[in-house]
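In this supplementary section we document a worked example of the pipeline. Step one takes a protein sequence of length 318 as its only input; no multiple sequence alignment statistics are reported here. Step two produces a three-dimensional model, which step three serialises into structure tokens for compact storage. The input and output of this example are shown verbatim.
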Amino acid sequence: MTTISVDALLATVASPGSATVPAPRPRKPEWLKIRAGGGPRFASVKQAVEERGLHTVCQEARCPNMGECWGHGTATFMILGDICTRGCRYCAVDKGMPTELDLDEPAKLADAVVEMGLSYVVVTSVDRDDLADGGASIFAASITAIRERAPGTSVEVLVPDFRGNCDALRTVLDARPDVLNHNVETVPRLYRRARGGGDYAITLELLARTRAWAPGMVSKTGMMLGLGEETGEILAVMRDLVERDVDILTIGQYLRPTDWHLPVERFVHPDEFAELARIGEAMGFAHVEAGPLVRSSYRADRQLMKSRAAKAASLEAS
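The serialised model returned by step three reads:
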């Protein structure tokens, strides 16, 4: 199987209208090389997505793992359109004022899950601050539609912060996904610079409410490194998350999508990711998935299995 650079793969999924001449990038280390995916499963996933007019975060966020995941017949679906109302300086998804709201999207999504034969599906969205509930009702309808059409499929949702709207969060939790994921993204000092419209306190409150209102549900969050955070700040965020009883933490390398986005301050060595995973699980996370190419939904099914196994072992030992 051919080895290609992350930049080469990202160029194949650039959004329409994006620059065709790549801007110069600092040389990436060897560990940021990936294996190109392909084959019949890749083609079938692509066809199922395109035929129903669905969006995937794999494409919109230019995920470096798209080839591997699609080649294995998995995808992370992005509902509520492909235009985000926020301007986060690390994210490749288009920004602006959305005009799309497809009320048939949950049914189309469930049809795609059935056609692709998925045993595990991740559903995420753009931020929709233009909607009163932030899109929570579409999340809930999508979970329900998948449950009805594919009752054996596990469902993970990666939700926005809903601007702290408690009713919106309850709407999603009441639909009973297997995993509720909301990413902390970075350390609080960098929020104003990197995560426009985001609020660290709101993120922590959402995760705390998830545990309080759905104690049996697996909770999950993720953060990226390379934006200028310091080790002490990373560990402080991890402690905050453990205090909210978050089950799964993902940690990956930030990669700059375009010149408009924030530059990469450093490339974190795989050994540092491995050490953070060790520290995190010692702190109390059921599972920490950490590595340069780790993204929130990368190997999400295995993350859930490892989390459940760790929690079961902990209960047996107590």
